[in-house]
Structure to design on (149 residues):
């Protein structure tokens, strides 16, 4: 994902899209901060899952800001936040379809030998280990409860 961010920044600089350049520089700076924190903690470099988590966090902050701006009637600034969110979303891994989520949940249920709702926690932990950066865990939790009920 590091290369994807660097390539996107280069392309934005070539096109002259100022908002995209500023957003990508912000993402690159946040990634650099995360890498420094990992080095200081002796963890090495952040994995793609860690970078996806960072992007998800940045997206949540922007969504909250956009909502607040919209509620205050500052429509132009809210639109700018939406543009920034679009840039961040473009860097994130593609979302998994509902069918793929259901197949992953069925596989986890089968692998763990789960039988009822009391096993949802165990299944969700296994799901997080295997698919953390790929699945929407909220949607997967609903599917998992449906399978185990």
């Amino acid at each position: 994902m590091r290369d994807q961010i660097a390539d996107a920044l280069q392309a934005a600089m070539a096109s002259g899209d100022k908002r995209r350049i500023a957003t990508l520089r912000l993402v690159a700076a946040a990634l650099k901060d995360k890498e420094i924190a990992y080095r200081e903690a002796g963890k090495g470099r952040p994995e793609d899952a860690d970078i996806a988590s960072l992007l998800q966090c940045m997206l949540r902050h922007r969504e909250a800001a956009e909502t607040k701006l919209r509620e205050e009637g500052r429509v132009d600034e809210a639109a700018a936040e939406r543009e920034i969110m679009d840039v961040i979303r473009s860097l994130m891994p593609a979302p998994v379809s509902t069918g793929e989520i259901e197949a992953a949940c069925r596989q986890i249920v089968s692998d763990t030998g789960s039988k009822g709702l009391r096993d949802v926690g165990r299944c969700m932990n296994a799901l997080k280990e295997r698919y953390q950066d790929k699945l929407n865990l909220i949607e997967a939790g609903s599917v998992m409860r449906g399978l185990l009920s």
